[in-house]
Design a protein that fits this description.
Helices cover about 45% and strands about 10% of the residues. By secondary structure, it is of the alpha/beta class. The two termini are about 10 Å apart. The structure holds zinc ion.
Length: about 270
Amino acid sequence: MIIDFHTHTFPDAIADKTIAYLTEKGGILPYRRGTLGALIDSMKSSGVDYSVVLPVVTNPKQERTINRVSAENNGKNHVFFAGGIHPDCPDVCATLDYIKESGLFGIKFHPDYQGVHFDDPRYINIMAEAAKRGLYIVTHAGWDPAYRDHLHCSPDMILNVLKELKGVIDNRLILAHLGGYEMPDEVLEKLIGAPVYMDTAAVLRPYPDKCREIILRHGADKILFASDSPWDSQYDYIQYIKAFGLGKQAEDMIFHKNAEKILGIL
Ligand SMILES: [Zn+2]
């Protein structure tokens, strides 16, 4: 059983345009089209049983639509969805209540595309309210290829949040890209052993050896298999994890057991 915890899809009508825009902005070529259908095809050809789609709300006005579409599609076609929330959300509690009542497992933050630092008080308030409702918080962490001049979610900002919300969000926070895209050394130095999950999206191809070290030191019980499809290949990412030779028990946790617990499908 394999669950890919970090993928993206866009509505059919805007998928090609959005992928073209993001490709130009970030300088990264996609491995498939950006539609839900293309994700389902990729899952079938790669041997992925379930995928999790993480939508990003870049404008508070999109929130309602994104969460409604996530709720409508959640669990269908073996695809689960996170909800989305913007730091300038006018009614944090109502939005989080809707996400919780819709049966979604959590929310996705993208500090770069949402124009805030991860330890911004608005984010901290949203995280405290989300954790209170039993929701998980997934955040992009580290550098973003489209924002090379400004880091919005550093290991130090993550430590600030963990300190501020100690006991409140322990084991509810999921850091994408093994804790920090393109900053594995600082992750190894500062985040190993923190009460956070880390996903493997987008980092296994560029620096596999560092990833293996992070996984071994942070512990397989806190690692989620993820590809960042369409930005990398689900099939190749499975092979990267298998090549690490972590053993059956660790692979089971990384490929599905940890995700099953978070998604509530155990
Ligand atoms: Zn992503």
